[in-house]
Amino acid sequence: MIELFNVEKTFGAVRAVDKINFRIERGEVFGLLGKNGAGKTTSIKMLTLQLKPTAGEIFFEGRPTRGNEIFVKSLLGLVPQHLNFDQDLTVEENLELHARLHHLKKIERRERIDELLKFVELERVRKSFVRELSGGMKRRLLIIRALIHRPKILFLDEPTVALDPQVRRKIWELIKNLKAQGITIVLTTHYIEEAQALCDRVAILNCGRLVALDTTENLCAGKSLEEKFIELTGAAIN
Ligand SMILES: Nc1ncnc2c1ncn2[C@@H]1O[C@H](COP(=O)(O)OP(=O)(O)OP(=O)(O)O)[C@@H](O)[C@H]1O
Ligand SMILES: [Mg+2]
Question: Is pTM, for the whole model, over 0.70?
Fold first, then answer.
């Protein structure tokens, strides 16, 4: 579904992503792990066309991203690392704005917004301003905002950061539910148990380089994923 060939990104002297090569298969949950600054967000940004690679090529369903931007953007949804709502709009208005950006028709917008608010149990707060929501509610809203246009691939950059264990589990259920609907999922996380609970395969980045890629089972082979992570990156997950 997605292929990366020698993908590289430099910011001046900083090599944020260093010639990475891998494939993401249709229908899988693919995890990107790595310490702070390992290159996870930069990779996600290149995969979601927010950043152009310095070198290398990315393909979606066999088509290069270059020259196929509209096609690729229609396939993907993005849950960014940092909340980027308009806090002074209501929950409903934020979703409406996003649906319009994706050119959904009025009836379709209404149906989709109702359906998604129900899906994450946020109907009760649809008229509330985003600034009034709890952290967990904002994260759930961020996820459904990315689903408005029915993307086939969902990218989630640290979807459960700073959430309590109960809300985290709810988001895990939500992600499992999306996988069951056939959506391909690419996520980054600092939580080993999250990678273990959700991911079919995990890629570990260290200083921009891909240092491991396998199923969590194969990667661990007698060790915990945490031990393997420390072995490969020289640090505990942060
Ligand atoms: N816009 C930018 N300009 C300059 N350097 C950048 C920029 N974005 C990222 N970097 C650098 O690229 C490297 C990778 O950053 P990136 O945000 O991809 O890491 P990350 O793995 O997502 O880290 P975290 O776990 O902290 O979110 C870091 O050294 C960072 O300082
Ligand atoms: Mg990041």
Answer: yes
